[in-house]
Amino acid sequence: MAQRPLELNPLYWYYGTAAISFGIKNHAFSYLLLIFATQAMGIPGWQASLALAIAMIWDAVSDLLLGHWSDKTRSRLGRRHPFMYAALVILPISFWCLFNPPAVVFDENLKFAYILVFSILIRTGTTLFEVPSLAQLPELEKDYHRRSRWLSLRHLLMWYGGNGIHTVNLFFWVGAFGIAELTGYAIYAYWGAGLIALSIIVSSLGTQSFGKEQAKPTEMFQLKAIFRELMQIYESLKNKNLAALFFYGLINGAAGGLGAALFLYTTRYFFGFNEKQIGIIGLMVFLAPLITYLVVPFFGRFGQKKTTAIAILLALIAIYPLPYVFYLVGFWPDAKFWQIGIFGAVIIFEVVCMMCAAILMDSMMADVVEDSEVNTMRRSEGLFFAARGFGSKAISSLGIVFAGVIVSVVGMESFRSELDMTDSHRLELAAYFLPIWCGLQLLAVTSLSLYKIHKGSHEENLATIEQRKLGSAIEIGS
Description:
Strand content: under 5%
Order of helices and strands: HHHHHHHHHHHHHHHHHHHHH
Shape: globular
Largest sheet: none
């Protein structure tokens, strides 16, 4: 019997809508915040990256505890939704405040503290919404390949939300007023906070009825028995397939943090694109999520999720450095039209690869939920999705620190135009950036190769869990 198309299921859209808020926050932190801190607020690169790294580590650690807590929560709203509604109080307000610093903050002793405090608040609000929202997937969908379809919509809307407002920002707000001026950032913050709040409201209310129907946990989270809770977290985290994805997240997150934090520096100064030209590249990249969404249904034809993900990542490693290499060896066109076209095409390819890999990683993590349940008798989807996020967030902070140090070492903190960037600066930037990025991605592929769950073993796990439920029902009936 044919399955009902996912597009006709309202839950499919409500679940996906949540990702708009993550996309806005992620683009702000990955592409904008370092350059906002260094050029608009005047914080040294190493100091700004340190504040962002501390906030990210806090976020990564808090994810694990909150994920486990949401797995063991009983309420009239369900396991996940109390946390999702709490995010509405924290996330939009702190996002607005971060990019609207009062004049008193520009005291040298307060700038670092301001960036640190509001970065922590934004990440805490994101954790309250993102972890419980994402963790609904294993109960929403059991099918091995259809789980990737749910996640493809989520990544589609995450990118259109984040890259959409980011592109508008480069054309009309920060792009119009200049990257060193506060005015554009303030306008961006109004729109960003409003869209984040709307995303939280729509997704939370839309999935509320499903949340109430979710299976209640067999035991409650108890803060007074925190040692027991920590031991349960440890027991669940011992799963070897989880470990493979966790270390993949650690290493890939470092590469992602490095590349994203340097993106505006490389486009603005290495390649010499102005804000409007960077905005055009942003518009071109709007094709990437649509391409990804159309490709995902064919993943099942390519084979197992792990094999497909490794092939995608190896292709990315081969293509990503080419514009930098072409520029340095003199094989870069003079016309800006062709420069934008070539660089934009590579960025589209990069985004498609990264989105496809991320969708597969999250889908593989959903499969780990049942793999663990067979051994522990507990469902730990909140904890597992938090653990995957923990890896990428905790160590992507290292990538941001690398980026801040590279900015300082190359001497880009005081740059105001591409004329400040000499060929010597370009060679130095590429010599630090590209080997580190490619090496980290190769290590990530190595970690991913250790993942063992495939379609057959996933279906065996589902059958074991179902037999166990039937056995318990028979026992209760007798």
